[in-house]
C-alpha cells in the first residue's frame, strides 16, 4: 500500500501477509515512494480494501465484505475502519443495521454542508430470485447506521456491480455502476447498464445513464478525471487494446457526456485510475499472472507520453487522492497509537 501524507495519493495494494501491512508515502506527480508506515489495525480475512479517502480521512473495509457472496456478517467480515494518520487515530464503525450482508459495496464521502463524513453500504442477500438492493448510511457525527431507500425496477431478474475499484465521489455524489437484465414480459430479455448515484447531502439515490457508445465493449471502469465523473471503456484490438475515456462535463446532464480521448495500451494491462493532473495510471503486466516485474506507468492522454513509476507490487492497486488534514475522530471505539 502507498499513502501520501501531504498533497497526493492513497495507493493501496491488498496483501494476505498479516505481518506486513505497510503504507508507503508516494509523491503526488511521480508516484515515487519516499517513506513507509504500519497500518494500525487488521482484518479477519487478512485482506484490507480501500473504500475511499476524504479530506484526510481514510476508510478501509474487509476485502471479503466488498467481494464475497457468503454471509459476511455471520462470518465476522463486516468490520469498517476510519483512520486519520495525521493525528494517529483510528475508529472501528459499529455493526450494520441490516440483518444480512451476503454481498456489500461501500462508498465513503464527505458531507460538505455539515462538515461530516458518511459511509454508504449497499448489499443484498444471495438468494434466487434476486431481491432488490438494500442500503444503509453511517454518519460519523451520530456514530450510527440508518436504512435508506432505493427505488428499484420491478422486472429485474439479474444484476451485478461491474467494477471492483473504489467508487468515485464527485460533485457531492457517490457512484456505483450496475449491469442488469430485465424480463421483457414475453419478449427478449433486456440488458441495461446504469450508474447508481447517491446524493450525500439529501441521502437520495438516482440513476444516471452511461454515454451512448457501443463500440467499446470489452470492459469498463467508473472513475473521475479532474473532479468530473468519467468512464473508461476498453476494446480489444489485434495488437493491443484501446482505452476510450468519457467525461460528464456538466454533472447530472446526460447530454454532457463527452469523449475525452482514446489511448492505445498493451494487451496485458490493468487499469488503475486517473491522477488529479489527468494522467492515466496503468499496470503493464509482463505475463498473464501478476509479477514484481510488472511496471506501473503514467500516460499523458494528449501526447501519449509514458513515464514509468518506481512502484513495485504484485497485486493490482487502487488509488484515491488525499490531503493531509487534522480532522478529528471522536466518540466510541476511537484508538490512539
UniProtKB/TrEMBL annotation:
InterPro entries: F-box-assoc_dom_typ1, F-box-assoc_interact_dom, SCF_F-box_component. Pfam families: FBA_1. Residues 13-290 form the F-box associated beta-propeller type domain. NCBIfam families: F_box_assoc_1 (TIGR01640). This is F-box associated beta-propeller type 1 domain-containing protein. It comes from Quercus rubra (Northern red oak).
